[in-house]
Amino acid sequence: MKLDTFFKKSIFIFGLLCFTVLSYVATTSFMNGDSTSEDKKSPEKSFEEDYNVFALEIPDEIDLAGEKAPLEIPDIKERMDRELLVNTYWQSNALLLIKRANKYFPIIEPILEKNGVPDDFKYLAVAESGLEHVVSPAGATGFWQIMESTGEEYGLEINSNVDERYNIEKSTEVACQYIKNAKERFGSWTLAAAAYNAGNAGISRELKRQEVEDYYDLLLNPETARYVFRIMALKHILSNAEEFGFIYSEDDLYKFQPTKKVKVDTAVSDFVQFGRQFDINYKTLKIYNPWLRDKHLDNYSKKVYEIKIPVK
Question: Which CATH code for domain 63-250?
Answer without folding.
Answer: 1.10.530.10
